[in-house]
Amino acid sequence: MASGYVAVESDEREHGPESLEFQSFLPNEGDASNNNTTSNNSNSSRGYLTDTPRGGFLSIEYYQQYFDVDTKTVLERCYSTLLPISATHRTTHLTPSPDLYGPFWTLTTLIFALFVSSSLASNVAAYLSSTPVDYDYDFKLLSLAVTIVYAYGLAFPVLLWLALRYMGVTEWSVVEAIAVWGYGQFVWIPVAFLCVIPIFLVRLILVVIAFGLSGYFLLVNIYPVLSSAEAKSARLLVIIVAVLHAALALTFLVVFFSYYAVHEIGPKDPIGDDTGPVGGASSIISSAVSSSMEAAATARMLW
Prior knowledge:
By secondary structure, the chain is mainly alpha-helical. The chain has a domain at about 65-255. The chain is built from eleven helices and no strands. The chain has helices at about 30-40, 40-45, 60-65, 70-80, 100-130, 140-165, 175-185, 190-195, 200-225, 235-255, 275-300. Helix 5 runs antiparallel to helix 6 (about 140-165), helix 6 packs antiparallel against helix 10 and helix 9 packs antiparallel against helix 10.
């Protein structure tokens, strides 16, 4: 009887999951990480950061990463600028995540401190004056403080970063430049409130101390970057930084920390008569004339 089955020849190879092979066309992540590590080795090993593109330059996501920082970290970075001998006094304490929240907070608080302390000091000076003076808040000082602080704390580090990029220095990011200048101005906040003290010598000493601390913080952070440039002229930028920093301190002293109480000079009536200076002088002259007339009459009688 004929069978309903058909004989089929098959090879003896076993087909299973173990015999299947897949080829990946994706790049090796290890090689990519090695390439990135090699390219950034010179910058990371020296403690500086380069600009890493994350999203568009004009997108919010690009800047969001630089505001993701907690209060404790910001305060620690602020306090470290007041201690020149601390190990975190240099920018390496900003790595690997420099932020923009701390610099913006520091500069904005400094503007508020300058305006409030200057207004309060002027009120104190008006109160201590011999003649009471009504003080009106000068909001021009507020606009002036905004212009000076933001121009020096934001615009100048960006210009310095552009100059360094032009000279071939690429191991310093613009975010780190702004962070250095922003945190470097923290010392002016307590000094601004202490300058309410109505003693000019004390205010002068406080300004000199703030100038020295903030200037030293900037110097130890930017000089290694400037010295890494091939052009030796890049080191001359330190002079520009020092001059502008001295101009900032002098501006703070003259514009915001200069005030004095007006005291009356001499007694109210230097002649000694209640009729005033003119009346007192007239009475003295008339007394002298009458005395001379009496002396002349006495001399005639004796003659």
